[in-house]
Amino acid sequence: MSDADADEAASARGREVWIEKYRPERLADIKGHEEVTERVQSYIDRDDLPHLMLAGPAGTGKCVTGETPVLTNNGIERIESIVGDVDGFGDAPASTEVATFTDDGSFEYTPPSNVFGKQATELRRIETRDGGEMTVTPEHKLLVASADGLEWIPAAELSAGDRIARPLDTPMPDCDERLDWPTAMDGDRTLVHVTDSFARAKEIPSAEQYTGNRKRVAAGVRRGDTVSEIAETTGLAEKTVQQYRRETVPTEQPNTVCSLSYLRELDVDREDLKQAVTGIQYESRNGQRSAVIEPAWELTPELARFVGLAVSEARIEGAQVKFYNTDESLLTAFENAATSVFRVSPETGQQQGVPFREVRNRALTHLLESCFAPFETGDGRTETIGSALVRAPPESRRAFLRAMFDAEAHVDPNGIIELTQKDGHSITLLSYLLAGEGIPSRRTTVEKAASNGTGTEREYHTLYISGAPHLRQFEKKIGFSIETKAEQLAQNAARISNPNHDTIPTQHAVDSLCDRLNLNKKDHISPETNPETPGRRTYLEGVETLLDAATERLDTAQAALERLVTLHADITAAAGTPTRWIEERSKLQPIETRRELSGDSGVRSDRLLEYADGRRTPNADRAMELLCRLNEAEAQGFEHIRRELDCIIHALGLSYEQVAEGMEMRGNGVNSLLDEGNDLSSLTRFETISERLKTLATTMCSQETVAALDSLHRLTAETLYFDTVEGIETVSEPERVYDLTVPGTHNYVAGNVPTVVHNTTTATAIARELYGDDWRENFIELNASDQRGIDVVRDRIKSFARSSFGGYDYRVIFLDEADALTSEAQAALRRTMEQFSNNTRFILSCNYSSQIIDPIQSRCALFRFSPLADEAVTAQVREIATEEGIEITDDATDALVYAAAGDMRKAINGLQAAAVMDDTVDEEGVYAITSTARPEEIEAIIELALDGDFQQARAKLDTLLTEVGIAGGDIVDQLHRSVWEFGLPDRATVQLMDEIGEVDYRITAGANEQLQLEALLASLALDEE
Question: For 808-959, where are the alpha helices, taking DSSP H only?
Answer without folding.
Answer: 823-835, 854-857, 870-884, 890-900, 904-917, 923-929, 935-946, 950-958
